[in-house]
Specification:
Elements (H helix, E strand, L loop, with lengths): L1 H17 L11 E6 L2 E8 L3 E5 L5 E9 L2 E5 L5 E4 L8 E5 L5 E7 L3
Antiparallel strand pairs: 1-2, 1-8, 2-3, 3-4, 4-5, 5-6, 7-8
Length: 111
């Protein structure tokens, strides 16, 4: 009986981890993205929407979809697909834009 309960607890724990929202730490915070075109601020919202402030000061909005370990941001000429990985405030990582250029993203606290 103890073995059964232990296995059941482990299954529930692993299921919860597998269903965790990889963008949970992004909500209420800002992703600063720097690249050849300048720096923009991206605000990812719960429910599949995002907005961004572009280098020229204009804003754009769109939707994103998470499919397995990939998230694709829609709303531009081409989808911008990235790894759907959990990040913490202060983390910095590399991205490849749809045109193949390299960009650097940093998750910063607040909006």
């Amino acid at each position: 009986m103890r073995l059964f309960v232990s296995v059941l607890v482990a299954l529930v724990a692993f299921t919860g981890a597998a269903l965790a929202d990889p963008f949970a730490n992004f909500y209420g915070n800002t992703v600063k993205i720097a690249g050849a075109a300048g720096e923009r601020s991206v605000f990812i919202d719960e429910g599949g929407t995002y907005s961004q402030k572009l280098p020229d000061g204009s804003t754009a909005e769109g939707k994103y979809e998470v499919n397995g370990d990939t998230a694709c941001f829609l709303g531009g000429e081409q989808p911008y697909c990235v790894a759907a990985e959990a990040r913490n405030v202060g983390d910095t990582w590399e991205l490849t834009a749809p045109d193949g250029s390299k960009e650097t993203a940093t998750l910063v606290a607040g909006r």
